[in-house]
Amino acid sequence: MTIHTLLNNLNIQEPFYSISTGLNEQVGQGEKIVISSPADGKTIGEVRLAEASDYNAVIVKAKEAFPIWRTLTAPQRGEIVRQYGEELRKEKENLGKLVSYEMGKSLQEGYGEVQEMIDICDFAVGLSRQLYGLQIHSERPNHRMFEQWHPLGIVGIISAFNFPVAVWSWNTALAWVCGNVCVWKPSEKTPFSAIACQEIFKRVLERNDLPEGVSNIIIGDSSIGNLMASDTNISLVSATGSTRMGKSVAETVAKRLGKTILELGGNNAMIVTEHADLTQAIPAIVFGAVGTAGQRCTSTRRLLVHESQYETLKEKLVDAYRQIRIGNPLDENNHVGPLIDTDAVTNYQNTIKTAQEQGGYICVGGQVLEGAMYQSGCYVEPTIIEAHSAMEIVKHETFAPILYLMKYQTLEDAISLQNDVPQGLSSAIFTLNMREAETFLSATGSDCGIANVNIGTSGAEIGGAFGGEKETGGGRESGSDAWKGYMRRQTCTVNYGTELPLAQGIKFNL
């Protein structure tokens, strides 16, 4: 099946750039760019990047839609999200293939990403009847205090290429049921997956006679992100990407006292203790390190192994890496697809070179693949590098399948090594010892937003709030009570008595 067949199955009409701003009748005024697949180097299509005038038009559409959308009851909004989930179920295969082809992740991961969208829609539908506030006992007689939650308005979502659709859905499904409308700037590296999601949702909006501006998409470069960050019309900016980008967004939004949810870099470690079950640990390590070609924010970057297990585990891992099948991500026999582009390949090569200069030793991998199968120039070998704590490179995140293998003596040493990086997203420990597991989960253990025992660092479920600490940004998306980030809290007091007592017993007699 060709990529154009996939797009046609999703009812996306050419020219594709005509909907790059989220407005069917308007063509983006900026530069035209060609989007090619890292799987085979072939052209998917063209989009014209939006400029400031296009952005302003999108904001107008969103502002027009918000008063209509927020007046629906939360369960009514949940019903719209439910219908979107049903449309996604119908399109799971097509959209999953598009994600896989455009981004380069394995087909199973492409399907999994769409399933995440379906799952968060289901979660949001239930949430639409659970936007609870607190009832508070007042110190004043004949008074009732309570908290309630209201929509923010326009939520801006900036997403990254590595999850072209799932992370957007985490944000937008919750934002929608909370009564907000959304403006989405996807990565300009993966625009067609985003456009497909928008087109699918349009079906639901049209069927329910709702304005298109409930969900808006604008394809643009960092200048559009800067406009979103500085725009007082956008109450909340949820940004996923590099720490550098997140700091810029946070600074700009903070200057206008806006709200942010930031999901930034990860430099995730897995600890393998002397009491670990290696049979269980090895597949978790391999998937965590090479899944999505190491281009997940939760990818396993550092493997901290107890000295008693070190040589055995190294030998088993090298053997497992030599069995990894690298190739076209649409072929389900392959484990690993390409990096997103040749710039990522250069970064992979430079990182390996730096690691070697700092004393690292390549156990396996380290090469860019060549030949007819790899004509896009984006395929690399998953790599294991023996490293030590003095190597500065291990404190930096590289979006590539590079795993640093390090030895430790005590659990305290391992936890210290794990936490001794600027990032704090995901972490894991493999042990059958309860004390080790509980120490890892305690206040003196992992300092990350995600801490797992006997599972890998990668593969979060939508039921739990997703996010991290330190330079990862501190925000939370998806499940649990993350919905509160998309609403404004209001404390209310009702006096139903005949007198006017003041708080703290203050007397003010006239």
Automatic annotation (TrEMBL):
Keywords: NAD, Oxidoreductase. The active site is at E263. This is aldehyde dehydrogenase (NAD(+)). Residues 29-491 form the Aldehyde dehydrogenase domain. Pfam families: Aldedh. Homotetramer. One of its GO terms (molecular function) is aldehyde dehydrogenase (NAD+) activity. Belongs to the aldehyde dehydrogenase family. The keyword Ubl conjugation does not apply. Its EC number is 1.2.1.3. PANTHER family: ALPHA-AMINOADIPIC SEMIALDEHYDE DEHYDROGENASE. Gene3D superfamilies: Aldehyde Dehydrogenase, Chain A, domain 1 (3.40.605.10), Aldehyde Dehydrogenase, Chain A, domain 2 (3.40.309.10).
